[in-house]
């Protein structure tokens, strides 16, 4: 558990409504995913965990969904920040990015790179304006990808050294297939850490096999904490996606077990202070 009196922040969660029609990745009949999730659904878990603030992250590649999330944020005190989406293939969308950035809870964007067929898309000349604009405007970039994308993310950081980057879900290591691919993933993550990226301790349970244990997650979590350091690692629930493998409290308990060897200051970083610094969140009154 983090030190008494510190504010816990969930650095990665979602709300969605499949009836909106823009969640192309979502299975049509999945009993966990294919239903609406809103603040009332998460509120009991947040209260039980003592989490007072969350970062709400996009789950559809549309500006309309980003505006939907900002509307939720306007009405939900627990949502401290929103990570949205703009079309990087359209340079005129800079105006949209500038408009969104005027919202007090908008912090940055997340292109859904894991779902883009071309792994080199992020390096294409047509998308370069978007990353340059984020760096220029001081907005954040949530890097959503797989281990195959590490090399290109590294090249992207070289091209845009001012870009504020956080790696979602520890780049989705193949935990269920461990140790296959672990060394390559670990080397890639160390490289990104050396370039100044941050990392979310999130999504690990959904990369593990059903019936996962804390021991299954430990090698990846330990490596992330080692190469990034707690001051650049932030815990996120990835709720409701985490429900494919664990409920909110179960994944939080696992994350606390994975960080039990850290001192109070380091745990406070992972469970709140890092997210607060990266997303530039205000400290709330007790």
What are its keywords?
286 residues, TIM Barrel, 10 helices, 8 strands, 38% helix
Report a brief summary of the structure:
With 286 residues, the protein is α/β, with parallel strands linked by helices. It contains ten helices and eight strands. The protein has an eight-stranded parallel sheet.
Task: Summarize the structure in words.
Helices cover 38% and strands 13% of the residues. The chain is of the alpha/beta class and 286 residues long. The protein has one domain: TIM Barrel, CATH 3.20.20.140. An 8-stranded parallel beta sheet has the order 1-2-3-4-5-6-7-8. Strand 2 (51-57), helix 2 and strand 3 form a beta-alpha-beta unit. Helix 5 runs parallel beside helix 6, helix 6 (182-194) runs parallel beside helix 8 and helix 8 packs across helix 9. The protein is globular.
Fold blueprint:
Elements: E1 8-13, H1 39-49, E2 51-57, H2 63-75, E3 79-84, H3 94-101, E4 106-109, H4 128-137, E5 140-143, H5 150-159, E6 164-167, H6 182-194, E7 198-201, H7 204-207, H8 214-228, E8 233-235, H9 248-258, H10 264-278
Parallel strand pairs: 1-2, 2-3, 3-4, 4-5, 5-6, 6-7, 7-8
Q: In sequence order, what are the helices and strands, one letter per element?
A: EHEHEHEHEHEHEHHEHH
Mean pLDDT: 96
Radius of gyration, in angstroms, nearest whole number = 18 Å
CATH class: Alpha Beta
Tell me the strand percentage band: 5-15%
């Amino acid at each position: 558990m983090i030190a008494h009196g510190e504010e816990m922040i969930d650095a990665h969660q979602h709300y969605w409504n499949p009836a909106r029609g823009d969640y192309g990745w979502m299975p049509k009949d999945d009993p966990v995913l294919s239903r609406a999730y809103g603040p009332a659904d998460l509120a009991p878990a947040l209260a039980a965990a003592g989490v007072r603030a969350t970062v709400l992250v996009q789950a559809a590649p549309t500006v309309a969904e980003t505006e939907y999330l900002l509307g939720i944020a306007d009405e939900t005190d627990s949502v401290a920040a929103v990570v949205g989406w703009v079309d990087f293939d359209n340079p005129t969308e800079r105006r949209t990015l500038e408009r969104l950035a005027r919202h007090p809870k908008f912090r940055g964007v997340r292109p859904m790179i894991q779902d883009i067929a071309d792994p080199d898309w992020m390096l294409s000349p047509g998308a370069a304006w978007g990353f340059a604009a984020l760096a220029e405007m001081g907005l954040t970039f949530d890097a959503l990808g797989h281990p195959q994308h590490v090399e290109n993310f590294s090249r992207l950081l070289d091209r845009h050294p001012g870009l504020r980057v956080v790696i979602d879900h520890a780049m989705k290591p193949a935990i269920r297939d461990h140790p296959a691919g672990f060394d390559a993933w670990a080397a890639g993550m160390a490289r990104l850490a050396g370039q100044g990226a941050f990392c979310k301790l999130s999504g690990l349970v959904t990369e593990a096999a059903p019936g996962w244990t804390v021991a299954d997650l430990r090698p990846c979590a330990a490596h992330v904490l080692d190469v990034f350091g707690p001051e650049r690692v932030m815990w996120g629930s990835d709720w409701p996606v985490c429900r494919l493998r664990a409920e909110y409290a179960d994944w939080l308990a696992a994350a606390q077990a994975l960080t039990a060897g850290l001192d109070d200051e380091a745990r406070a970083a992972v469970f709140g202070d890092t997210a607060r610094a990266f997303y530039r969140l205000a400290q709330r009154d007790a």
